[in-house]
Amino acid sequence: MAESRVRRVGLGVDAGCPVRYSGVLARLLALMVHSQVDSLHFSNRSLIEGNTVSPVPIGPARSTMARNETVTHNWFVVDAGGHIVGRLATQIATVLMGKHRPDYTPHVDTGDYVVVLNAHRVRFSGKSMAHQSHPQFTKKMLRKTYERYTGYPSGRKLTTAAEVLERAPERILHEAVRRMLPKNKLGRKMLDKLKIYCGDEHPHQAQNPQPFPEYLLPG
Questions:
Q1: In sequence order, which ranges of 98-139 are alpha helices (DSSP H)?
Q2: Which of 78, 111, 127, 217 keeps 20 to 30 A from 196, CA to CA?
Q3: Please, where are the H alpha helices in 36-160?
Q4: Measured at the alpha carbon of residue 188, what is the angle toward residues 186 and 190, in degrees to the nearest 5?
């Protein structure tokens, strides 16, 4: 045990009083003396036993862990018309995972349901081009490709975003969100809460979906 004299820095110890402390506490005490940090508070004489200063015990920070039995899922609806695919998919993935909620727990599905309307009106960034059916067609739709395999030799297939937009428009946003979710069973469960439609109507009126939060919409 080392013995030293401590200046008065709000520790409740008379100036010049000999104090014994261990090596770890010595370094902490020196830091408080030199930087005048008083985030660790020491009480008065009640904590001074045998001329030894003991810090007030600070318990671990409490956090709320959600459970599958108690989680409630909300429903949101968003109009995808005119939004950039990647930026909108980022916010949708955030809601599906539940990271917008204060009780977010990584190993529990705390996310909410998201209903997407007008999925055929999404757009990519890039230079605008004239198109007969898409008002916000860009050059990137011709360069962006989606890859799949048939399972047979030489079965690699590449499809441009423009072709996917004609065949299955909802797949563009679905794939963008899927790649942002965890690649496991929990991620597949989160993806099931995504409902994508190409029109202005959806069959989920019974769930009374609320408008997508404005602070989560891409700017």
A1: none
A2: 127
A3: 85-97, 140-143
A4: 70
3-class secondary structure, 159 = strand
Please, which residues have CB within 8 angstroms of residue 201's CB and are 6 or more apart in sequence?
A: 117
From the list 202, 177, 180, the residue with the least C-alpha distance to 118 is: 202
Which string of b and e fits 69-98 if b means at least 16 CB within 10 Å? eebeeebbbbbbeebbbeebbebbbbbbbb
Amino acid at 124: F
Which position has the higher pLDDT, 132 or 40? 132
Mind listing the pLDDT tens digit for each residue in 134-149?
888 889 989 999 999 9
174 vs 9: CA distance, rounded Å: 60
**Residue ranges of domains in the chain:** 2-53, 75-216
20: phi then psi, degrees, rounded to nearest 5 = -105, 140
**What pTM value is reported for the model?**
0.69
Which pair of structure tokens corresponds to residue 132?
């007969």
Residue carrying structure tokens 């563009």: 172
Q: Residues 37, 39, 40, 46: is their CA dihedral positive or negative?
A: positive
